[in-house]
Amino acid sequence: MNNITALNFSKNIFNVLDKAITNHEAFNVSTDKGSAVILSDEDYRGMKETLYLLSVPGMRDKLLAGMSEPLSECISEEDVGW
Known about the structure:
CATH superfamily of the domain at 2-39: YefM-like domain
Number of strands: 3
CATH architecture of the domain at 2-39: 3-Layer(aba) Sandwich
Strand order of the largest sheet: 1-2-3
Strand content: 15-25%
Order of helices and strands: EHHEEHH
CATH class of the domain at 2-39: Alpha Beta
Helix content: 40-55%
Shape: elongated
Number of helices: 4
CATH topology of the domain at 2-39: YefM-like fold
């Protein structure tokens, strides 16, 4: 995570936001009263979804098991009955 002061953030706001959105870089903006984190909306939503999935009982184990399953044993996307 990149650390930046509020003063430098205000001087470089468009560059910082571009890096957060385009390069998925996170920024810790510090002030005298504390700090705040700047990250892209996409990254924020991904973090929220991950926290939600990990809050579901048993989901973590299912995800880990699915990650270790060989692709050759998976069904194709076309065969999924959405």
